[in-house]
Write a structure and sequence with these properties.
By secondary structure, the protein is an alpha/beta fold. It has 11 helices and 21 strands. The chain binds flavin-adenine dinucleotide (FAD).
């Protein structure tokens, strides 16, 4: 009689594509590639113990501003319709403030950008639940949980070995396993890494005055970058990219104390802020990660595995969705004689994404450095730049269109 470990040792799961990861980008890649006709195995880490059932979990502290590229992709996969629409907030305007005595500013709205909505704010949990619901009905997707131990490639296939002895054999492996990507490491893809010496402190608040669908951002100089994103109703979500020392202070404070600090920026427009869940404050390290390649033989990288950028423009996830859309297109449009793990096909994917990714890396990194320095000459230049951009409608519209993913 076989014991469980020897039967696992014999188990070889075969599919066209193996996707490693279980975040939003991995799940979307699985849905998209399955819908394009490929058989897919989605390998997530061992499942965490089921959390004890509680009542209403409240608003998720992790929220994303998703652009039109993300919206189009999720709509085509029928994920957008599965979202809890009551928990999604459209962004109708963006208001950016500079710092110092001569603070510049930049404002734009959906009307000026000739669109119905600039972006949508939604919670990580809402997105995850909609993706899970769509995956339940997906043909051609096998969900596997396990710990990957090795990734071996030859001319015809790539095999991911798991610690229980099972393995997943496919023509192509996709690394959608986040900033610390295991897949990327297995392929010896080098990278440039720089810490911004900042952490993003996040929490949610009720606001006294209506936000009218506006996303606010303050480049404050010494205190980093404060963003308040609209949630449904009179509620906002904070992303405060704070220098390390201030981030330590904020994490030691209560959400009510953080709300009091925000008054200096927000009270004029939003009135008093009150924590929605006083205990819910989280923080994330901010860094620039630039892998030297987005592909390797029989491997493609998507999402944070392929690039990590500063969240000041709210674009990391959007870049990831654009990777997914491009990977589906490149694989689907390849010549019939080429396999999906063909070097030339993967090189096409990488070339197609290069410019967009580089532009976003340079823009977010440039802005983080320009607005991170608490030095007077730079303060004058950046405020002048914001005011100038605000007065150049053609350039402004182009930048907005690009940010919207149009
Ligand atoms: C504060 C903050 C605010 C942000 N706001 C925005 C925003 O407004 N808009 C936007 O577009 N982006 C935003 N981003 C960026 C966005 O969060 C990321 O770009 C996005 O979450 C990346 O998704 P991902 O699925 O690639 O990676 P992750 O979300 O990190 O998921 C990777 C997954 O892979 C799994 N995994 C890891 N290793 C393995 C392994 N060996 N085997 C199997 N599975 C594995 C992990 O469990 C994880 O679930 C923000 C980021 C921060 C920090």
């Amino acid at each position: 009689m076989n014991n469980p470990s020897s039967s696992a040792a014999l188990r070889v799961i075969e599919s066209d594509i193996c996707i490693v990861g279980d975040g939003a980008i991995a799940k979307t890649t699985a849905l998209g590639l399955a819908q394009a006709g490929f058989s897919v195995t989605l390998l997530g880490p061992p499942p965490p113990p089921a959390p004890a059932a509680k009542g209403d979990p409240g608003w998720d502290a992790r929220v994303y501003a998703l652009n039109h590229t993300a919206h189009n992709l999720l709509s085509s996969l029928r994920v957008w319709d599965a979202l809890d629409a009551a928990r999604v907030a459209p962004v109708d305007a963006m208001i950016v403030h500079g710092d110092g005595a001569h603070a510049g500013g930049l404002a734009f709205d959906a009307y000026g950008a000739h669109t119905g909505t600039l972006a949508w704010i939604l919670e990580d949990r809402n997105l995850g639940q909609a993706l899970d619901a769509a995956l339940k009905f997906a043909q051609n997707v096998k969900l596997v949980h396990g710990r990957a131990t090795a990734l071996l490639r030859d001319d015809a296939s790539v095999t991911v070995h798991l610690d229980d002895g099972a393995s997943i054999k496919s023509q192509l492996a996709v690394g959608a396993d986040g900033a610390q990507s295991w897949v990327r490491g297995q392929c010896d893809i080098g990278l440039d890494y720089r810490s911004y010496a900042q952490r993003a402190v996040v929490s949610n608040f009720a606001c006294e005055k209506p936000h009218h669908g506006a996303a606010y951002q303050w480049f404050t100089g010494a205190e980093g970058i404060v963003a308040l994103l609209p949630l449904p109703g009179n509620q906002v979500s904070l992303v405060w990219s704070a220098p390390e020392a201030l981030a330590d202070t904020l994490r030691a404070e209560s959400a009510a104390q953080i709300a009091a600090r925000l008054a200096v920026y927000a009270s004029e427009k939003l009135g008093a802020l009150t924590p929605l869940q006083p205990e819910l404050v989280r923080d994330f390290p901010l860094r620039l990660i630039r892998p030297h390649a987005m592909s390797a033989p029989r491997v493609a990288l998507v999402g944070d595995a392929a690039h990590v950028v500063h969240p000041l423009a709210g674009h990391g996830m959007n870049l990831g969705f654009a990777d997914v859309a491009q990977l589906i297109k490149t694989l689907s449009e390849r010549e019939p004689q080429r396999g999906i793990g063909d070097d030339r096909v993967l090189a096409r994917y990488e070339r197609a994404r290069k410019e967009d990714v580089l532009l976003m890396q340079l823009t977010t990194d440039g802005l983080a450095r320009l607005f991170g320095a608490d030095v007077e000459p730079l303060r004058v230049i950046r405020n002048f730049g914001l005011n100038l951009l605000d007065k150049l409608p053609v350039l402004k519209r182009r930048l907005i269109s690009h940010a919207m993913g149009k």
